[in-house]
Design brief:
Elements lengths: L10 H14 L4 H11 L2 E2 H7 L5 H13 L3 E8 L2 E7 L4 H17 L3
Antiparallel strand pairs: 1-3, 2-3
Length: about 110
């Protein structure tokens, strides 16, 4: 096993973080999760209107991926023409928002 500067850090920890980045990669993915974490439930249509330039196919693909990986969930609702509602799974919500803020700070600091 590799020795890291953070004594409690292991190869398994690296794989878990890598899986997180893999889950969140792809254009619009992090934006979608952020919208749902910060604003709560959204229908497909309201997400489409919220994200300028996203195609219907890309939105459907990203939502399906995030549901499959357990980052978000959806449920069928019947409110007019709205059939599904997507939402961020509440467990870990505050930690996720802290992570978003850390990413933003790092990006601004290093102009990434």
């Amino acid at each position: 096993m590799t020795q890291y500067a953070i004594k409690s850090w292991t190869d398994d920890d690296c794989m878990v973080v890598e899986q997180l980045f893999t889950t969140l990669q792809g254009r619009y993915t992090l934006l979608l999760v952020s919208i749902l974490a910060l604003e709560g439930r959204h229908s497909f249509g309201s997400l489409k209107r919220s994200i300028s330039g996203i195609s219907t196919k890309t939105l459907a693909d990203r939502l399906a991926h995030l549901v499959a990986t357990g980052v978000i969930a959806n449920e069928k609702v019947k409110e007019g023409n709205i059939v599904k509602s997507y939402y961020f799974i509440a467990t870990g919500e505050s930690e996720f928002l802290q992570l978003l803020k850390a990413f933003r700070t790092y990006s601004k600091t290093f102009n990434i």
